[in-house]
Structures are given as C-alpha cells and as structure tokens.
Amino acid sequence: MNLIQAILMGIVQGLSEFLPISSSAHLVFTSNFYKVFSGIPIHEQSTQEIFFDIMVHLGTLVAVMIFFRKDIIKICRALVLACRNKNWTDNEAKLGLYIILGTLLTVLVAFPLHVVAEKLVFSPAIVGGLLFITGFVLLYSEYISTHVAAKKNSVDLKTSILIGLAQGIAALPGFSRSGWTIATGLFAGLDRTTAARYSFLLSIPIIIGSSMVYPFIKIDLHEALTFNWNAILWGTVVSGIVGYLCIKYFMKFISKFSLAFFGYYCILAGIATAVFFSVYK
User: Fold this and answer.
1) 103 contacts 171 by C-beta, under 8 angstroms
2) What are phi and psi of 243, to 5 degrees?
3) DSSP code per residue over 20-34
4) Local structure of residue 8 (DSSP, 8 states)
5) What is the CA radius of gyration of the chain?
6) Residue range 6-31, pLDDT digits in tens
7) Are residues 30 and 163 in contact, defined by beta-carbon separation less than 8 angstroms?
C-alpha cells in the first residue's frame, strides 16, 4: 500500500461512510479497481489491507463522535440520571436505551452474516448487485415518505427495533448502513433529519465494536511492524476530516432534499461495477 492509494481510500471512506452509498462497497470497488489496473489478483487481500480498513473506520468514528459530541454527552447524562432515579421518562434517556437495543439487534443479525460479508470482498460484481438493490430501497423509502401525512421527530421502540434490524442486514457490503437505516426510519414515518441523526448516533457503538474488538484479534502484531504506517496514518486522518465535513453538509442537504439522487447513483454505480467486474474476474 502506498501513500496515494491510502489517501484515496481515506477520501472514499470519509465520503461513503455517512452518505447512503455503502462505504464497504466503495472500499471494495476502490481496492479491486486498484488491483485490476496494477495487475494484482482480486482474490488476494493482505493483512495490511484488513488493518487499513479498520483504521479508516476509526477515522470516521472520531468524526461522528466530534460532530455529535453534545448529543452524546446529553444521552449519557440522561442514562446515568435515569438509572440513578429509576425514571425513564426523559426523551434522551429513552433514546439512549433505543440505541442500546438497536445495537444488540444489529449484532444478532450481523454476526451470522460476517462470514458471507468477508467473502464478498473478493466478489465486487455481487457487491455491485447489492448496491443496485440499495438504490431501489432509497427510492422506495422516499416514495413512502412523501405519502405519509404526519412526520415524527422522535424515535419510538418499534422504530428502533426496525432500524436496528436494518443496520444488521447492512453488514453485507453493498447494503449501505446509513442508507438502510435512514430508509427504514422514513418507512416508519420519521422526518429525514431525525432519521439521519438517529442513524449516525446508532453507528457509533457498532463502528466501535466492528473496528476495535473483532478485527484486532486477527491481526498479527509482529506482521504489523512491517506495515506502511505513514500511509495508514494519513489515510486515517483524511477519512476523519472528510467524514466530518460529509456529516456536516449531509445533515443540511437531507433537511431540504430527498435521497433520490443517492438512490439513482447507487443503481447506476451498482450496474457499472457489476458489469465491469463480471468482465475482469
């Protein structure tokens, strides 16, 4: 891995983690495009590549925690007070419980899928097909949302369950985590801003878990000494900066505009990559 490749993938991760276009799919595409044009077999993935994926996810984790730091502090304080006073009527405390519940449901669904998800890294054509499906999910959620008279600005128990399950399904690369969770929120009657805010807050514990707990047990510390740490650190920093800017402007975008643009993008990108990687196997 060289510096230019790391920075490029950091930009891709920062943009695609929070936009509803599947960061995992775009990392798969970027990595495999690089391999195709560099003459490297697609079915080869080094430990350094796996570790780099972890690090750029940590970069976007820092971005979302900085952007929503006030919300995180309020929710944590509300949870502590609710536990102390045994009173769960506070909306922020309820939101904290819903995030915990949604995360547990995500793990229950995503864990059995992780073996399939890891194999799909070497099947970019299939990932393109899943991204195509994500596009239709986004478009259909917008259609449903526009036909729901009342829009909710708060998450309830049923909605948190549905969004948690959707986040679990999105463990498969090509099924956008933010896309599926925001779309599910729209299906449940949430307004776009509330659905996006909850989606990003719900991403925090699952990114922590997937980036810091499970993958690190697979990394050989002795082999890590041979990594190109300069490239890895630059990619991580870039993913964090781009991710923060992406959240900032996406929240403004989604409050005024629909997800249709991203839906059409996913459909076109899914078709293009599925065709390309079907030819260059």
Assistant:
1) no
2) -60, -45
3) TT-HHHHHHHHHHHH
4) H
5) 19
6) 998 899 889 888 899 998 888 888 87
7) no
Question: Which two three-digit tokens encode residue 123?
Answer: 């099947």
Tell which residue, 127, 126, 122, 198, has the closest CA to residue 167: 198
CA distance 158 to 151: 15
Question: Which tokens belong to 57?
Answer: 């996810």
Q: Which residues pair with 190 in a beta bridge?
A: 152
Task: Please provide the size of the chain in residues.
Answer: 281
Instruction: Identify the CA nearest to 219 among candidates 25, 82, 39, 50.
Output: 50
Distance CA 168, CA 187 (A): 17
Write down the residue that tokens 């196997």 correspond to.
Answer: 281
Dihedral (Cα; 75, 110, 134, 202), 10-degree rounding: 0
- Reply yes or no on whether the pLDDT at 45 is more than 90: no
Residue with tokens 């878990």: 209
Q: How many other CB atoms are found less than 10 A from the CB of residue 93?
A: 22
Which residues contact residue 183 at a Cβ distance below 8 angstroms, ignoring those fewer than 6 apart?
20, 137, 138, 140, 141, 166, 259
CA distances from 19 to 15, 45, 48, 179, 278 (A): 6, 26, 26, 7, 26
